Prior knowledge:
The chain is an alpha+beta fold. It is built from 15 helices and eleven strands. The longest helix is centred in the middle third of the chain and has 30 residues, at about 275-300. The protein has helices at about 50-65, 70-90, 135-140, 145-150, 190-195, 200-205, 210-225, 250-270, 275-300, 305-320, 325-350, 355-365, 375-405, 410-425, 430-450; strands at about 5-15, 25-30, 35-40, 95-105, 105-115, 115-120, 125-130, 170-175, 175-180, 185-190, 235-240. It starts with 6 loop residues before the first strand and ends with a helix. Helix 9 packs antiparallel against helix 10 (about 305-320) and helix 10 (about 305-320) packs antiparallel against helix 11 (about 325-350).
Amino acid sequence: MRKENSDFKTSFVTEAGSFLHNKDYFAYVELDDMACWVIADGLDSDMEVDSAEMVVKSILGRFTEKPTMSSLRLKHYMQEAHEWLRTESKRVRLKASLILVVTDYAKIRWVAAGNARLYHFRGGRLFGRSRDQSLAQSMKDAGEISEEAMEVHEERHNLLQYMGQPERLEPYVSKKVPLSEGDVLLLCTPGLWEDVNATEMVDGLTDAKEPEDFTDTLEDVLLSKQRQTVSNYTAVAVYANKVFKEDPKRKWRLLKKWLLALIVLLLVGGGATFYFVKQAAIKAENLENMLEYQKSADMYMKDSDYPKAIKDYSEARNMAIRLKDKFHRDFFAKKQRVMQLMVDGDEAFKGQDFAKALDKYGKAQEEAKPYKEFNHKQLEEKIDRSRTYMQIMSWVQEGDKKFEAQDYVGARSSYQKARKSALEEGYTDGEKDIRAKLDSAEEKLTGLRK
C-alpha cells in the first residue's frame, strides 16, 4: 500500500483558448501501488472523434487493468492506442501527441510520442525535461540550434513520432528516475509551453504552495501575453510532498545477495567478472521480455485477436533466439503459424473463398489442439459456417448452369434452396445476390407462360 505511505497531489487546467473545441485531453489514476498521468494533444481536424481522448482512455484503461513500470508493457499500451487511432481513421487520419508518466510513489518513468512535455522541478529549479520527438529537437541535439531557438523554431511541430502515424510507433521511454520529497512534475501541451518558458515556470513555482496555485499562475502568465490566437492548452501539476521510502532491511538483503554473487564470480572468473554480470543482466532482460510477450500473445489468442497475437509471438520468438532457447523458439513459431492460419482463413472467408477458408481453418484446428487458451468452440463455428456457405454457393452454381441451359424451373428450385439456407444462416450479402438471380429466373418463367 505505497499510496498510504506517500502524499501526491494533482491539479490541472485545460481550456480551448480561442477555439470552440478543446482537442487536448487529460486523465489520471492513483492506485494502491502505482499512479499514472496521461496528457494528449489532438492534432487532427475531426470534430466528431476526439483522438486525444481516445488514446488517453485506452492507455489508462490498460494501466488500470495491469499497473506497471515495465518499459516493454508501457510501449505495448502505447502501441495498442496507436493502432486504435489508425483503425478509426475513416474520414481523416486521427493523430495525437502524448506523454504519460507512471510512478510507484518512489520513482517515475515517462513515455512520449510527439511534443507534449514533462518538466521536473526540484528545489525550486528545473531538474529535467522530456525530449520532444520533433525535427527541431533533433536539430538542437545535433548542435544546430540552441534550446531557446528550439522553443520557437518553425520545425517544432514537425513530429518524427506521433500517435496514429502510418508507420509503427517508436515512442521514447525514459529510464526510472528517483523522486525526492518536494519534487514537482508539470505535464503540458504545446499550447502552454510555447507561450510560458521554463524561466517563467520556475518563477511561477516560487510562491505556489499547492498544485492548483501553480496551474493558475501558469494560466495567468499565458493569458497575460494577449496573443491574437490562443491555442488549446493544458497544464497538470503533481506535487510529490512525500515519496514512498523503501525498507532499508530489504535493500540490505538484496545487496547481500549481489555481493555473494559477485564474490563467486570473482573466484571463478577474475577479470571476466564485469562481462559475466553484464551478460547475465542482458539475458535476464531478454527472458523477462520473452515472458511478457508470451503472456500478451496468449491473451490475444484467447480473445481471438489473431493479428496482434502474431506480432507478439514473433517478438517472443525473437527473444528466444537471442537466448539461444531452441525449445521456446520452435514453440512460439508453432503458435504463430496457428494464428497466421486463422488470419488467412478469416481473409478468405471475407473474400467469399469458402473452400480456401475451410482449408485454413481445418489446418488451424489440427495444429491448435495442444493449446487450451485457444478458442476451439469459435473455430468449430467458423468451420461449420464455411461448410454451409460452400453448400449455398454450390446450389447457386447449380442454378446458374440450369439457367444457362434455359431450365428456368430447375434454376428457380436451386436458387430457392440457396436463398432459404442463406436467410437461415444470416448470410445477408449472399442472399441479396441469390434473390436477384431468383427474380431473373421468375421473369423468364413469366415470359414463357405468356
